[in-house]
Amino acid sequence: MTAKTSNILYYSGLILLAIGAFGLTFAAFFAIIGLLVFIVGIILILVSIKKSWKHRLIPIGLFLIGIVAFWPIWRALNAVGPEVFLIPENYRGRVNIVYKKGCGINLEKSEEGLVYKIPNDGILVLDKEQKFGFIEHTYYLIDSKGVRTELPKMDVRDFNEEWTLEKNSNEPPRDKLGVFHWGRTGSMLRMIDENGEVSNQDDLYTYSEFYVSTYKDLTDRFDFKYERKFDSIRDIKIEKCKTVVK
Q1: Measuring CA to CA, which residue among 76, 78, 74 is closest to residue 24?
Q2: Which residue positions in the chain have pLDDT lower than 50?
Q3: How far, in Å, are 84, 142, 177, 222, 223 from residue 150 at the CA level?
């Protein structure tokens, strides 16, 4: 290998290290791409054999130290929570937290963090903008006396179906109550309002959602008809909220 080729590999590797490090820190939601670029950069630097080991290892080490030191700071800055959700003890089904600026209620912070008291219809409208990031959520059923029962966070991928490629030998009971689809978010714009007119940006809102359910009920009970009815109740509630604000 010539010195010129070694220099090209070395400086190309440094550039890729810098790009990869950026992807692993400031753009950490795209960490997989950043990691691949970072690894390619390391390889290019290591194969530039005309450079001494000192010149090759020091920049790699400095970038690694910087990434490791930055991650806790970045995660803290992009964390959402802690947040506590209090759900009526007999409620089952979909829960929506609707974020509609200028409409709904405001939450106050407690020692536990933000506390979301879910109403009996499962739809809580908040007068705030939605924040995105790493979530730290805890879910409880709460009875009339204020006694809480924590709900486990569950994942549909833990259950075996005909199409499941890798079977889970520790599949949870299908009748176990828990929180499914936690952390799911979405947005909605009603294109046509109740008067048949084209909607404007005031009809745009975002939401987060989860389901209080067993795995079996997710498909057997909370089907398409249930979803349509829930969406209708949510739209009516938001429309009433907007009317009150006006």
Answers
A1: 74
A2: 191-192, 196, 198
A3: 10, 9, 10, 22, 26
Beta partners for residue 88, in sequence order: 142
- In contact, 137 and 83? CB cutoff 8 Å: yes
Query: Which residue shows structure tokens 């759900």?
Result: 87
Q: Kindly report the CA angle at 12 between 11 and 13, in degrees rounded to 5?
A: 85
Q: How far apart are CA 76 and CA 61, in angstroms?
A: 24
CB 235 within 8 A of CB 190: yes
This prediction's pTM? 0.68
Q: Which residues contact 98 (CB under 8 A, 6 or more apart)?
A: 104, 123, 124, 125, 126, 205, 206, 207, 234, 238
* Residue the block writes with tokens 């499941």: 164
**Three-state DSSP class for 128?**
coil
Say if residues 61 and 18 touch (Cβ distance below 8 Å): no
Q: Which residues contact 236 (CB under 8 A, 6 or more apart)?
A: none
pLDDT in tens, 178-230: 999 988 888 776 544 555 454 555 567 888 899 999 999 998 899 899 999 99
